């Protein structure tokens, strides 16, 4: 067997993966129908056709399921996809916003659940802030904004998350008619102006 070949999955491994996927699918359906806050673990296990014990073999909370949904369904972006400051960075900022907007418009129920979880679940809100802190550290490491200090990086990251969240909420949740390209262009201009 070559070093690149994936190990062969046993029947038990395949069953575990299928059960985990069923839990995530059932959770997303429940979040879409009832909202994140109103959804219980019992709602999820009922939809998945499993017992609570099986749920807890895979996840320790509904917040853990939502984090896994976010992590597995979001497009994997490389370091080169991150927004960049400097004189030639504007196209990277626009590309970043395009990818985020397109992802959330393809999965509005996931966006809504994430938004609700950040607002109502302290565990999920803390995880979201940890992600933002990791972004600050990554932008420092990669020199995403040449010459910028930590305070300027924090401002840019806060603006980036806030603009995306506000735009997506107005568009996907409130149904406000916004032009995708105009909104992306406006967010690009605002973020890029802080990154120069």
UniProtKB/TrEMBL annotation:
Q: Which residue numbers delimit the DNA-binding region?
A: 40-59
InterPro entries named among the record's database cross-references: DNA-bd_HTH_TetR-type_CS, Homeodomain-like_sf, HTH-type_TetR-like_transc_reg, HTH_TetR, Tet_transcr_reg_TetR-rel_C_sf, TetR_C_15
A GO molecular function for this record? DNA-binding transcription factor activity
Q: Which residues form the HTH tetR-type domain?
A: 17-77
What SUPFAM superfamilies does the record point to?
A: Homeodomain-like, Tetracyclin repressor-like, C-terminal domain
Keyword vocabulary terms for this entry: DNA-binding
UniProt xrefs under PROSITE patterns? HTH_TETR_1, HTH_TETR_2
Which PANTHER family does the entry link to?
Answer: HTH-TYPE TRANSCRIPTIONAL REGULATOR PKSA, HTH-TYPE TRANSCRIPTIONAL REGULATOR RUTR
Query: What is the protein name for this chain?
Result: TetR/AcrR family transcriptional regulator
Q: Which organism is it from?
A: Mycolicibacterium diernhoferi
| Upper lineage | Bacteria, Bacillati, Actinomycetota, Actinomycetes, Mycobacteriales
């Amino acid at each position: 067997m070559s070093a690149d070949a994936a190990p062969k999955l046993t029947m038990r491994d395949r069953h575990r993966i299928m059960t985990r996927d069923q839990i995530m699918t059932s959770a997303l359906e429940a979040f879409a129908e009832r909202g994140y806050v109103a959804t219980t673990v019992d709602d999820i296990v009922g939809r998945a056709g499993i017992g609570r014990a099986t749920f807890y073999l895979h996840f320790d909370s509904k917040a853990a399921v939502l984090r896994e949904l976010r992590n597995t369904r979001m497009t994997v972006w490389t370091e080169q996809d991150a927004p960049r400051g400097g004189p030639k960075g504007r196209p990277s900022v626009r590309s970043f916003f395009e990818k985020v907007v397109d992802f959330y418009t393809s999965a509005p129920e996931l966006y809504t659940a994430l938004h609700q979880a950040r607002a109502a679940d302290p565990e999920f809100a803390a995880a979201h802030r940890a992600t933002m802190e990791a972004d600050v550290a990554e932008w420092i490491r990669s020199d995403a904004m040449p010459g910028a200090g930590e305070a300027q990086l924090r401002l840019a990251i806060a603006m980036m998350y806030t603009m995306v969240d506000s735009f997506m909420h107005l568009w996907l949740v409130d149904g406000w008619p916004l032009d995708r390209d105009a909104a992306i262009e406006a967010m690009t201009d605002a973020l890029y102006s802080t990154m120069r």
